[in-house]
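--- STAGE predict ---
source: upstream dedup step, 1 unique chain passed
mode: sequence only
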Amino acid sequence: MTARVGVSQTDVVVQGIKKLIIDRALRPGDRLPIEKDLAEALGVSRGPLREGVRALSMMGVLETRQGDGTYVTALDPSLLLAPMGFVVDLQDHSGARHLHAVRRMLETQAAGLAATRISDERLAAADELLRRTEADLTDGVPDHEALIDNDIAFHRVIAQASGNPVLAALIEALGGRTTRDRLWRSISQEGADEATHGEHRAILDALSGRDPDRARIRMAVHLFGVEDYLRQRPPDDDSIPDL
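--- STAGE serialize ---
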């Protein structure tokens, strides 16, 4: 393989290794050929080869093991889509509503799928998270960070129960930026934690009833609440109050 004119050698490496994986010449868990042979096969020098390998490692495609070479990862969607969270984290307040709108679309579909697929064990796990939240809400001064941790875990259970690992990975990748907004709402909006808990309980009831339409509606109503809050929030108000 020879490098194309106008294309950087690092890009040649990235695209070349990608093609090897797509063509099944390299499979998940396989070790890459030694540096000299791979550079020769891709038509590049060793410097760009190392840069390309580093780039693919950051993407979750490759994993370098000290003293043992470089391997193709399991190519799990949660690993491959994780870098998307970095892009999400760079968004400022003006883009928050758009991120939450995408999150709503994804999680609404996930709730509908989960209603037909969720196991009794996952239903019990979700119920336990809500019980912890309820105990915290009745314990005096709420621990907002603990409440948000439970919130994230509850939504994660539903995403994983959808049975679609790519959908679950996309929802997880959006978590970074939306978590900050959810924490801000928990701290600054009176009654937000109680309202969220009630909405979560309604979602769980729909899941327990194996009712996909109701689960989608309950999830949409819940997430529209966050979007409505963001619309009302001043555009320059992006600082989280002291806990």
